[in-house]
UniProtKB/TrEMBL annotation:
The keyword Hydrolase applies. InterPro entries: 4-hydroxybenzoyl-CoA_TE, HotDog_dom_sf. This is Acyl-CoA thioester hydrolase. It comes from the Bacteria. It comes from Sphingopyxis indica. Keywords: Hydrolase. One of its GO terms (molecular function) is fatty acyl-CoA hydrolase activity. Belongs to the 4-hydroxybenzoyl-CoA thioesterase family. It holds the Pfam family 4HBT_2. The keyword RNA-binding does not apply.
Length: 136
């Protein structure tokens, strides 16, 4: 599957709990933002029955920090699903404040069956919803 998915924007408000001793957002919060954005993307596009039957577990995050974020910044995490391979999904997430890129994240996720908690492949009809311009 090649990247033809539509980007999904996820709004983030930086609250006081995200600020560390240096006066900016602690690095750990960026990963939480990525998780929230990826899961919001899944819930927005997947049919309700697929959302109920599947969970996502993060396998790997590779993050490059570019600039700090601060209290009350309006931040947007843009997620792009790059490909789905078996039970795995590969995302790129760009975290921005206006035009400034704050962080770039490559991540891989494993889809698991909500009942058995074992890896689960998504049905091709579900995957096709995320790649509307591709033949599955």
């Amino acid at each position: 599957m090649t990247a033809a998915a539509h980007p999904h924007d996820h709004d983030i408000t930086v609250g006081p709990d995200a600020i560390d001793f240096m006066g900016h957002v602690n690095n750990a919060h960026y990963l939480s933002w990525v998780q929230d954005a990826v899961l919001a993307h899944w819930r927005k596009i997947a049919p309700p029955e697929a959302v109920a039957q599947h969970l996502w577990v993060a396998l790997k995050h590779e993050i490059t920090y570019r600039r700090p974020a601060f209290l009350d910044d309006r931040v947007i995490a843009t997620v792009i699903l790059e490909k789905v391979q078996g039970a795995r999904a590969f995302y790129e997430t760009i975290i921005r404040r206006g035009e400034d890129v704050l962080a770039e994240v490559k991540s891989s996720w494993c889809c698991v069956d909500a009942e058995t908690l074992r890896p689960a492949r998504l049905a091709s009809e579900v995957v096709a919803r995320f790649f509307p311009n591709e033949k599955i």
